[in-house]
Amino acid sequence: MEKLNDNFFEDDELDIEAKHFRFHVGMRNIKTAIAATLCAFIYAFFERNPTFACIGAIFGMGSDFKDSKRSGGNRLFGTIIGGLIGMALFYVYIQYYPEPTSNFRFMLFELLFIGIIILVLVCQFLVVPGAIQPAGVVLCIILFNTPVDAYISYPLNRIFDTAIGVIIGIA
Predict the structure, then answer these.
(1) SS3 of 101, please?
(2) Rounded CA gap, 154 and 83, in Å?
(3) What whole-number distance in Å separates Cα of residue 165 and Cα of residue 52?
(4) Fewest CB within 10 A of the end CB: N or C in the chain?
(5) What is the pLDDT of residue 17?
(6) Using CA atoms, how far apart are residues 96 and 98, in angstroms rounded to an integer?
(7) Side-chain half-sphere exposure of 85, counting CA atoms within 13 A
(8) Dihedral of CA 89/92/96/101: which sign?
(9) DSSP at 3
């Protein structure tokens, strides 16, 4: 049996030695915590769930302004792309299954496959390849976790919440 490495940080792939590791809370960490908390605080006044705004704020926080715009922009554009594609595909789905039955999910698999192909092509066309992952996440949430009566309002609310969070994170 091969002997396991006793020290996780001696792994060549990590290129980090254990003696150089230290816990550190820097200004970026503080700003990220402030941005996410500010989102949650603002949303409390409107009695809205702050989850997606907080996620947007965290994604909108980069090492500098340029990185923040890139990270936050990828998250926002991904949410918009995934939300719009998800709404369109969910509309197609409810045309076939307005009242879901036990067999209703099989069409969602096909729509997910088509949706991912479409979102990859849209992200490539718009030259925002970093938006592919957040777009895919939003697409999956819409297709598999959204009630039929909320397939339009849910994605629009997620887009709005993410935009607020990204703006606060970048600010």
Answers:
(1) coil
(2) 9
(3) 7
(4) N
(5) 58
(6) 6
(7) 28
(8) positive
(9) P
Instruction: Please say whether the dihedral angle defined by the alpha carbons of residues 49, 132, 122 and 98, taken in this order, is positive or negative.
Output: negative
pLDDT surpasses 90 at 79: yes
pTM of the model: 0.79
- Who has greater pLDDT, 121 or 8? 121
* % residues pLDDT > 90 (the chain): 54
Neighbour-count burial for 36-45, b at 16+ CB within 10 Å, e otherwise: bebbbeebee
The candidate with the shortest Cα–Cα distance to 166, out of 28, 33, 74, is: 74
* Helix, strand, coil content of the chain in percent (nearest 5): 75, 0, 25
Better-scored residue on pLDDT, 40 or 106: 40
